[in-house]
Design a protein that fits this description.
The complex is a heterodimer of chains A (474) and B (137). By secondary structure, chain A is mostly helical. Chain A has 20 helices and no strands. Chain B has a 5-stranded mixed sheet with strand order 2-1-3-5-4. The chains are: A mainly alpha (474), B alpha/beta (137).
């Protein structure tokens, strides 16, 4: 019981730090759902970095990490209290459909869905308290090295006999779990499940709050239902894989780019950069996401000639990415996929049989990666039918470009894979698709409710000159 | 909102509801008919060995013996699972399949495998779990 309380405290403290940091950078008051959702992941990410570096310098990293977290939280609280008095009010909520039976039905279905998802999560905890295969064999294993090994833990983790644990993998999830164990004083399975579940909850909260902010509540809750109605998402949210956390950071960066207005909102852009860097601290796919987001954002700024928006995004990115790059180049052994690249890379790209194998696997896994009992794609597409006018606003284009480039990146990585291609696809493709699924649902929500000039989303005082208001109910 | 969009929205909600309902149903079934978690079972099986390792101050890397030769440990799901589960239970001790370089070794036998030559049994923990030490040459 005590370990459960301590685990809850550890995660809540990380969440508080993240929420304060997010709140400090947030440009308006009254958007608590967004701040809390982004703050959950940011908090766990920042505290995992603190704990990891404390474990490198101290045999008992907990006091060092706790002191640093306490100092950070007090500083953030002080700055946030000073800043919040001067913050402008929240933007006027987007036009909502009138209260109707449809709104009530979706609302109550969403509440029931949350209860069912919670039940499924608790059931998964009971059945696999140590998580599923990757959960214990990769992520929690590394957490044990960090927690039990003290300052020698990391050097033990990268010993040659353990190459099968992929020692180059980033450590956000293991360091978060090890940090929770350090608070608890024992490596209780509850802490591992809790960290995993918080990322699932934060992903759902971020999707709903983000779409609500940019479109309307009805489609936000429907998007949340689509995510909750993905059995693989619900199961993965509790079984301690790192794919849900990296998917959270991808969604966070995408939503934050959507929320940041054309002028100003430097804090939101800084957070988008931070979330992008933390994706790279979660999984190697996050490094690909850094490249994709950097490419998409730079292109949009080039087109719109708004170079002033680049520094805050790059600042946030650098803050999270520099420790990751240091970890990658100074500490971790080379990545197996990169190390396996030889002069035959171009030949692989041109090998049509490899394209065929990959396309077949994508065709096979796309309809089933969510482990659906009833496929949602057709009804989701049917809902989009109608005039395409209003589809291609800045947000849908940016989100769509991020999604497509990520998929193209995954495709290229498979083409260059040094492993047996069929095995590589069988063992990872569904998880990669799950990483980008929240972004895909976000895009669907944006498309389902067209942006249009009639929506007055920003209050007159807030609306930046020359920047068109965006988002409108159907 | 046009009728068509209300209808399709309802369909999206219904499909999501069906999926989640069946996911929860699966959860209920597994709770009613629980299968013992192999990782938890192995944690209990190796608990005494881990305590002894800590008491003796054995750290760093130790050799690992299984029912099959080291070349075949990664060849089968059962053998690789056993190896990974023991590594998980004993971390931060590193278990090396190349046993000859290490003074200490652990054995994880499911069958009556012959003890490896060159090592003596220091302690037998039952259920095929042994702590071994390299015999003096």
């Amino acid at each position: 019981m005590m370990s459960a309380v301590s685990s809850l405290f550890a995660v809540a403290f990380a969440w508080l730090i993240g929420a304060l940091l997010t709140g400090l950078l947030w440009p308006r008051r009254g958007e608590a759902a967004l701040v809390l959702s982004v703050g959950a992941g940011v908090g766990l990410g920042v505290t995992s970095l603190i704990f990891f570096f404390a474990s490198l310098v101290s045999a008992n990293p907990f006091p060092v990490a706790f002191a640093a977290e306490l100092l950070l939280s007090c500083s953030l609280l002080f700055l946030w209290l000073r800043k919040r008095r001067t913050l402008p009010p929240a933007l006027v909520a987007p036009a909502q459909p009138a209260r109707s039976w449809l709104g009530a039905l979706v609302r109550w279905t969403f509440v029931a869905a949350c209860a069912l998802a919670l039940f499924s999560t608790v059931a998964a905890w009971r059945v696999e308290p140590y998580g599923s295969w990757d959960g214990w064999a990769l992520w929690n294993m590394k957490a044990r090295f960090l927690y039990r090994g003290g300052s020698a833990g990391y050097s033990q983790m990268v010993q040659p006999p353990l190459t099968w644990t992929h020692p180059d993998y980033p450590l956000l999830v293991p360091a978060s779990v090890a940090r929770s164990w350090a608070y608890t004083g024992s490596d209780s399975p509850f802490a591992t499940g809790l960290v995993a579940t918080v990322f699932g909850v934060a992903t759902l909260g971020l999707l709903v709050a983000g779409v609500h902010r940019l479109r309307n509540r009805l489609i936000a809750l429907t998007g949340g239902l689509v995510l909750l109605g993905t059995p693989f998402f619900v199961r993965f949210s509790s079984n301690e894989h790192a794919d849900i956390p990296v998917g959270f950071f991808m969604l966070a960066a995408t939503v934050l780019l959507g929320i940041a207005r054309d002028e100003g909102d430097r804090g939101v852009l800084f957070l988008a950069g931070l979330a992008t860097g933390l994706a790279a601290w979660t999984k190697n796919e996050g490094l690909l996401f850094c490249v994709v987001l950097g490419l998409v954002f730079s292109t949009t700024q080039l087109v719109t000639k708004r170079w002033r928006n680049l520094p805050p995004l790059l600042g946030g990115l650098a803050l999270a990415l520099l420790p990751v790059l240091w970890f990658k180049f100074a500490l971790a052994p080379p990545n197996d996929i990169m190390a396996g690249q030889h002069a035959d890379g171009l030949a692989k790209l041109a090998d049509w049989s490899r394209h065929q194998i990959i396309l077949k696997a994508w065709w096979r896994d796309l309809p089933k990666f969510g482990e659906w009992y009833s496929l949602p794609f057709l009804v989701m597409l049917l809902h989009l039918l109608g005039p395409v006018r209003g589809w291609f606003d800045r947000r849908t284009v940016v989100t769509g470009a991020i999604l497509l480039l990520m998929l193209a990146g995954y495709y290229t990585v498979y083409l260059l894979s040094p492993y047996d291609l069929a095995w590589h696809l069988d063992s990872s493709l569904v998880r990669l698709l799950m990483q980008v699924w929240p972004v895909a649902v976000f895009l669907w929500c944006l498309l389902a409710v067209r942006a249009g000039p009639a929506a007055a989303q920003t209050s007159p005082a807030e609306s930046p000159a020359g920047s068109p208001p965006s988002g409108q109910s159907a | 909102m046009p009728f068509w969009r209300i209808l399709t929205l309802l369909l999206v909600v219904a499909v999501a509801g069906i999926n989640l309902w069946r996911t929860a149903g699966d959860g209920l079934r597994t709770l009613r008919h629980p299968v013992a978690d192999p990782v938890m079972a192995q944690e209990q099986r190796f608990a005494a060995l881990r305590r002894t390792l800590l008491e003796r101050g054995i750290s760093g890397t130790a050799g690992y013996f299984a029912d099959v030769p080291k070349e075949k440990v990664f060849a089968g799901f059962a053998t690789v699972s056993e190896y990974y589960q023991m590594q998980y239970a004993l971390a931060p001790l590193v278990l090396d399949l190349n046993t000859e370089h290490h003074p200490w070794a652990v054995a994880n036998f499911r069958t009556a495998a012959a003890m490896p030559p060159g090592f003596k049994v220091v302690q037998d923990f039952g259920q095929g779990v042994f702590l071994l030490q390299q015999a003096a040459p």
